[in-house]
Structures are given as C-alpha cells and as structure tokens.
Amino acid sequence: MELNEKEFADKACNFLKDYMAKNNIEKVVIGLSGGIDSAVALALAERAIGADRIIAVMMPNGEAGGKSRDHAVTVAKKFEVKDLREVDISPAVNAFKEILKTDNGKCIGNIAARSRMITLYDTAAREKAIVLGTENKTEHYFAYFTKAGDEVSDIELIRDLYKTQVRQLARFLGVPKEIIEKPPTADLWEGQTDEDELGITYETADRIIKGLVEDGKSERELIGQGLKKRDIETVKKRMADIAFKLQEVPCPVNT
To answer: DSSP for 84-110?
Structure first.
C-alpha cells in the first residue's frame, strides 16, 4: 500500500494537462462532496491546470450530508477555487420519488447519484468543459457506485489508487485534516457511511483486495497475515455479487 506521493502526483498532473491540451479543453467540472476523494481529485487538478480552470459543484440533497457542504467550501478555499457552485438536487430526487412511488433508501440514493451526474454533465456542456471523476480503486473493485451515476466521467485521476493510498496522497497534497479523518460517505441519505454499508473498513478491504486480485494470494495466506476469514469472505462475496457491474454491456456478435 506504500505510495510515492510526489511521483504519482506528478504523473497524474501531467496526464491531465496532456489530455486537455491534446483535446483543446479549457476547464474541468468536478462534483465537490466534502469527502476525501473529490478533495484529492480537485487538489491534483489545481496543481495541474490552476484553480481558475476548475468549476466545483456542490450538490446537496436537502438536509442529507450534514457538514459536507462546509467541508466542500473548506476544500475550495484551501485550493483557491473561486468558481464554486451549489445545486440542490432534492427537487429532482423528490420528483422521481413521486413518479416511481418509492421510499426505498437505496433506490433514492441511486436517483440522487444520477441527478448529480446530470448536473455535472449539463454544467460541462454549457461551459465547454469535461467532467473529472473521483472514483478510487477500492470502490471500483467493489463496484461501489451507481450505474449511469457516479461511475460516469470523462477522465479519472485516482481510480488506480486504493482508498488507503488516497489518504496518503491527501496528506501530501495538503487536504485539510478534518476531511482526511472523517468517515467516508456518499451522502446518499441521512447518516449513510460507506464502511457501514459495505460491512468492512476500507483499510481492511484494501489489504484483502490487493492480496486476492493483484498478489494472487490464497485465503489461507491472507489469514496467515492476520486478516480475518469473515472479512475475506465479505470481500469475496461482494466482488462476486457485483462482477456484472464491471463488465461491458453484453450484446450478440454479428459474424
């Protein structure tokens, strides 16, 4: 899980600069949630292209999110992003709740995630910008996203970093301490946290995923490293249950 923070930051910044120059793109739009992933993505973008080429959008769902709005404002100020916008998505979410006749928490969370992506892409289209994603590797392997929602972006900078590594990079980039240390949440409903929903801490999940997927270790070997069988089974079941979400849309081949 060790990360050469400067080396990665330089690589990510050059990646973004080169992509934007090659495609004649002036600005990026990012959903600024007040969480660590969007803070790190924004910090990298500021380092790469400057704060004046970043549009940060806060998208609260009514009261859901608590201090997240304050944290988003803190991040924008820290990295001197002046174009900070706020769009309350609750009217859209409530409209779809009525249309679909649902009070199911996960369904409403998916509606919120898709409403946010509509907001980001509409903003990007009007500003002739691209959407900068905020997904990390742990979320990707867990498929911990809403299809056609927060999985969608035009470019990603931290998708190849585990959550543990994102925290390391956050410290290097100067992300405020209260954001690094707060419980991760997608703010999809009141009181929601990632780790409660996943049933495992990110630190433990990272060790297991890396061991199973990248290092090719067996369950027995991971247990020998001090990991619990219950946690390993939780990760394996989650990855098996959501494998379809990581596949390309299937279709028959015309031969």
So the answer is: EEE---HHHHHHHHHHHT---HHHHHH
Instruction: Kindly provide the residue ranges of all beta strands, DSSP E only, lying in 114-254, ordered along the sequence.
Output: 129-131
Nearest to 42 by CA among 72, 69, 10, 19: 72
Strand order through the sheet with 27-31: 84-86, 54-58, 27-31, 129-131
Q: Three-state SS for 11? A: helix
Instruction: Tell whether 111 and 144 lie within a shared domain.
Output: yes
Q: Where are the alpha helices (DSSP H) in 23-57?
A: 36-49
Same domain, 123 and 231: no
Residue 240 lies in a domain: yes
What digits encode the pLDDT tens for the residues 13-65? 999 999 999 999 999 999 999 999 999 999 999 999 999 999 999 999 986 55
User: Based on the domain organization, do 127 and 226 belong to the same domain?
Assistant: no
Q: Which two tokens stand for residue 151?
A: 């999985």
The model carries a pTM of 0.91
Contact 32, 58 (CB under 8 A): yes
